[in-house]
Design a protein that fits this description.
- The complex is a heterodimer of chains A (about 110) and B (about 625).
- In chain A, about 75% of the residues lie in helices and about 0% in strands.
- By secondary structure, chain A is mainly alpha-helical.
- In chain B, the strands form two sheets. A two-stranded antiparallel sheet of chain B has the order 1-2. A two-stranded antiparallel sheet of chain B has the order 3-4.
- In chain B, helix 2 (about 25-55) runs antiparallel to helix 3 (about 65-100) and helix 12 runs antiparallel to helix 14 (about 380-410).
- Classes of the chains: A mainly alpha (about 110), B mainly alpha (about 625).
- Chain A: Pfam families: COX4_pro.
Chain lengths: ~110, ~625
């Protein structure tokens, strides 16, 4: 039956292994989180420091792109190679990103009045 | 729930309740087919009225305003509410069987998708009785539709929003179904072509419908709450609607034509009795058409003044689509080449489809040439082109597949002789109607006009075109008659009706039991049923598991309730700009019904039920006699 609760006892070694695995995973999450906070800080910093608009605009867009990738791969677990159908998920996400970028580009370039 | 008495007669009320609450993909397939046929008939009648109006110069069969409503509703209904659900009908009925699944991944969402589509469609059609239908064309360009008096455009916006949500839900459902529910051994490169095109179509739905949702939402707040997204006087931009609409609208035509390609790729190998030529290139071409479909939308807008650079880019990307489409056409021809051909009705439709669709494709490349498009734009040439693609591609696929899959869907066969009469009436009528419109366009007749002056050389051609439309109508009437007499005919109770079935759905004996496969099949190659047949396997498939309990989903009335809630709320939103006191309460009541049903769905566990082995054995014996499906 599909909905019976299963209780599975873990061995000592298994417990230790998973504990270590979780710790590594947590460290990675925290580091990525710190990087993202730092990138956000940089975005604010360039504005406050009053750089030229020709620097600020591309710089912030670049940071945004990095943030999106970090968000997808770290917090939304697209880096999980053992995940089910991870290849399909990556295909769909990047296909969507490519066409969304096309729309963005055309809206910026050919709608002007 | 899981009644052993499958073949027992049920009362009318019980049957109705069963269909209102069903989550079975086969029943939903039938419901999509019925609803799609209803709207196909309505939109066909609208087309007939337009052709009668245009039969003679200065005709006054309908007024100019009514003509605008007819042409808008004809286009909107045919694309959103007839072609889409008819193809969804085949996807629902066939795809789970082709991949060896017992149902779709989310049966509840499947039902929700149907009811949202159906109630959205009903809402749109109520506009005829509630003060006038939308009248700004199916594209509903903002510069026209913002200033359309009455509630027609509001019906368009709200109706399409609801039915579009249904389509989006169904699309996501099919993506997940095809990726996760394939039987063991059914690798991606062993999937039948119809399953492949369904997957790519669903992906297109996933990416194309959100822009439409955004556009409709902008239009909604513009018209009902006085926002200015598209109003250039107040700083908006009417071109944004055109971009958003065509970002959706161009993939939409591929959403319709790719499943049609898939259906013909199923029909042709069966009746050429030969393996599909170039399977992997067919898959590649499908994916490529899907991708390029998103990169060409501005070719609908060459004359809005995008500038030569943008026009050149979109012209080239549009012409590029001819390459994968050409690959497909050659593959179909080479499948037929050297085959032992049986010209049954479905094959007749396939043979008629290839030259008709190529003609539509060639005029498409002509229009992709941006400088020439300045001449062709908004003329009858455009009307001729897209009807060649849509009728010559999609409608022929739907009619052909009705004959092809009727035995699986209804355990009855459609009459071949009547089918041939339908085909010839429809096919000749179709070319008579639309071929001549190319020349009307080149002679300068603009599209979307309700009448024209005599003696411009258009009179005879318009008359011939209208005669063709009447012939198409006769063909469809014969098909309806065919369907009605098939309901009275004897059940087939057989497997592989056409005798040359190749993919898994033909391995099943009809009527297909509600759990589809008593044991999940093991797929040992492309065209699994053909493979098993040729190795002398009497049961049509190798099993991947022993006979065991089957887990199936429960029926639910909640999808219908959720959809009714949105239907009610839409009326509140529609009459809100009139300043009536009840509009806000009606919106709140409607949304409360929907959200309430969602809460019930979330809080109440619905774990489905198990069909036990004894019940399976009993069901099989009841359906197929002693010994079950042997």
């Amino acid at each position: 039956m599909g909905h019976d609760t299963q209780v599975q006892a873990k061995t000592k070694a298994q417990f230790e292994y998973e504990r270590h695995h979780n710790a590594v995973h947590m460290r990675k999450q925290v580091i990525n989180f710190a990087i993202m906070i730092f990138l956000t800080f940089l975005a604010f910093a360039v504005v406050v420091a009053d750089f030229s608009a020709y620097f600020i605009k591309p710089f912030i867009l670049l940071l945004a792109a990095v943030q999106v990738v970090l968000q997808l791969y770290s917090f939304m677990h697209m880096d999980d190679k053992k995940g089910h159908h991870i290849g399909v998920i990556q295909t769909f996400v990047w296909f969507g990103a490519v066409i969304a970028f096309t729309f963005f580009l055309t809206f910026l370039t050919i709608i002007w009045w | 729930m899981s009644s052993v008495a499958v073949a027992n007669k049920k009362g009318f009320g019980a049957t109705l309740w069963d269909y209102l609450t069903t989550v079975d993909h086969k029943k939903l397939g039938v419901m999509y087919l019925l609803a799609g046929t209803l709207f196909f008939a309505i939109a066909g009648l609208e087309a007939l009225f337009m052709r009668i109006q245009l039969m003679f110069p200065n005709n006054d069969f309908v007024s100019a305003g009514t003509f605008n409503e007819l042409l808008t509703m004809h286009g909107t209904t045919m694309l959103f509410l007839a072609a889409t659900p008819l193809l969804f009908g085949f996807m629902n009925a066939v795809v789970p069987l082709q991949i060896g699944a017992r149902d779709v991944a989310f049966p509840f969402l499947n039902s929700l998708g149907f009811w949202l589509f159906f109630l959205g469609a009903i809402f749109l059609h109520l506009s005829f009785f509630l003060g006038g239908a939308p009248d700004a064309g199916w594209t509903s360009y903002a510069s026209l539709s913002l200033y359309s008096p009455g509630h027609g455009i509001d019906f368009y916006v709200l109706g399409l929003q609801i039915s579009g949500a249904g389509t989006l839900i169904s699309g996501i459902n099919f993506i997940v179904t095809i990726i996760t529910m394939r039987a063991p051994g059914m690798t991606f490169m062993r999937m039948p072509l119809f399953t492949w095109t369904t997957l790519i179509t669903s992906a297109l739905i996933l990416f194309a419908f959100p822009p439409l949702t955004v556009a409709l939402f902008f239009m909604l707040v513009d018209r009902m709450f006085g926002a200015n997204f598209f109003d250039h006087i107040n700083g908006g931009n009417t071109i944004i609607w055109e971009h958003l609409f065509w970002i959706f609208g161009h993939p939409e035509v591929y959403i319709l034509v790719l499943p049609a390609f898939g259906l013909f790729s199923e029909i042709i190998p069966v009746f050429a009795r030969k393996r599909l030529f170039g399977y992997s290139s067919m898959v590649f071409a499908t994916i490529l058409i899907g991708f390029l479909g998103f990169m060409v939308w501005a070719h609908h807008m060459f004359t809005t003044g995008l500038g030569p650079t943008a026009n050149a880019i979109f012209a080239v990307s549009t012409m590029a689509i001819a390459v994968p489409t050409g690959m497909k056409v050659f593959n179909w021809i080479l499948t037929i080449w050297g085959g032992s051909i049986k010209v049954t009705v479905p094959m007749l439709y396939a043979l008629g489809f290839i030259p008709s669709f190529v003609a539509g494709g060639v005029t498409g490349v002509m229009q992709a040439t941006a400088p020439l498009d300045y001449q062709l734009h908004d003329s009858y040439f455009i009307v001729a082109h897209f009807h060649y693609v849509i009728v010559g591609g999609i409608v022929l696929a739907i009619f052909g597949s009705m004959h092809f899959y009727w035995p699986i869907m209804f355990n009855r066969a459609l009459n071949e002789t009547l089918g041939k009469w339908t085909f010839w009436f429809f096919f000749i009528g179709f070319h008579l109607t639309f071929f001549i419109q190319h020349f009307l366009g080149l002679m300068g007749m603009p599209r979307r006009v309700f009448t024209y002056q005599a003696d411009q050389g258009w009179d005879l051609f318009n008359f011939i075109s209208s005669i063709g439309a009447i012939m198409m109508a006769i063909g469809v009437l014969i098909l309806v008659f065919n369907i009605i007499i098939s309901a009275k005919s004897k059940p087939l109770n057989c497997r592989d009706y056409w005798g040359d079935g190749r993919s898994l759905e033909w391995a099943l004996k009809t009527p297909v039991p509600f759990y589809n496969f008593k044991q999940t099949p093991l797929v040992r190659g492309y065209d699994p049923y053909w493979l098993e047949k040729h190795e002398g396997n009497e049961e049509g498939m190798t099993y991947a598991e022993p006979l065991g309990d089957i887990h199936m989903p429960n029926n639910s009335v909640l999808p219908l309730v959720m959809s009714i809630g949105l239907f009610v709320a839409a009326f509140g939103a529609l009459y809100h700009p009139d300043g009536v006191a009840w509009s806000i309460p009606v919106i709140i009541i409607g949304l409360a019904i929907t959200v309430g049903a969602m809460i019930v769905r979330s809080l109440k566990d619905d774990l489905g039920f198990h069909v036990h082995v004894e019940e399976i054995v009993a069901t099989e014996e009841q359906l197929y006699g002693k010994g079950g499906n042997k």
